[in-house]
Structure formats: structure tokens, C-alpha cells
Amino acid sequence: MASLSSYKERNFLAVIGDEDTVTGLLLAGIGHVTTGANATRNFLIVDPKTETEKIEKSFDELTSRKDIGILLINQHVAEKIRYKIDTYTAAFPAVLEIPSKDHPYDPEKDSVLKRVRRLFGE
């Protein structure tokens, strides 16, 4: 079991997704941008021109931060970095795949549901 200190400082949600998803979540209040020379933010807007390397780098940065508890990622974006999603095993931040307006959710592709099925031998 994780100790209290391992998750008590995880105050933020993060999101990697299309413009509509990220905008909606930012309007809901999840946005956090730091100032200074090493400014960081807890979101990445992905469009068709966004390179896979940029998505991978953002995923690595967001999952290594100690102030993020949950990382939400559009499922169609997660497909671009599926190998990273499937090999990610840390408890925090939890990585959850969500649908987007233009791409329906497919439970067969969801990494969390795949792990649950393996645990129950399905």
C-alpha cells in the first residue's frame, strides 16, 4: 500500500487531448501554469499536426511530476503512444483514457480495462 506521503501532494489533474477536450477541462478549472524560466503546464492540446514525439515527451513529463494525481488522455491520442500507455505501471498519476467528441470510446483498446480482464482471467 502506498504511503500517505506518496500521494498527499498530488493536487492537480493533467490532460492530453484534442482542442475541445482540453478547452472544456480548462474551463472547468483544471489548468495550472507555472511562471519563471522553467514554466510548465498540466495540459497539451493535440491536433493532427502534433508530432508523436511531442506527445511522448509530454506524457513522460506529466507522469513524472509529483503534483499530478490523474492524467486524462483522449483515447485516439493514446493510440499514437499505445506502447507507452501499456507499459506504464505506476499507481500515480493514474492514466485514464477518455473519449472525445469526434472519436467514440472503445473499451477493447483501454489499457485499464485490459489489465482488469487479465486479473480476472478473461
What do you see in this structure?
- It is a single chain.
- The mean pLDDT is 87.
- β1 (12-17), α1 and β2 form a beta-alpha-beta unit.
- This protein has five helices and four strands, in the order βαβαβααβα.
- With 122 residues, it is α/β, with parallel strands linked by helices.
- The protein has one domain: Rossmann fold (3-Layer(aba) Sandwich).
- The chain has helices at residues 19-27, 52-64, 75-78, 82-87, 111-119, and strands spanning 12-17, 43-45, 68-74, 94-98.
- Strands 2-1-3-4 form a four-stranded parallel β-sheet, sandwiched between helices.
CATH architecture name: 3-Layer(aba) Sandwich
The averaged pLDDT comes out at 87
**Major sheet: arrangement of strands:** 2-1-3-4
Number of strands: 4
Q: Briefly, what CATH class?
A: Alpha Beta
What is the molecular shape? Answer: globular
Low-confidence stretches: none
Helix share bin: 25-40%
**Might you state the CATH topology name?**
Rossmann fold
Strand percent estimate: 15-25%
How would you characterize the largest beta sheet?
A: 4 strands, parallel
Overall structural class, as computed from helix and strand content, comes to alpha/beta
Listing every helix as H and every strand as E from the N terminus to the C terminus, the arrangement reads EHEHEHHEH
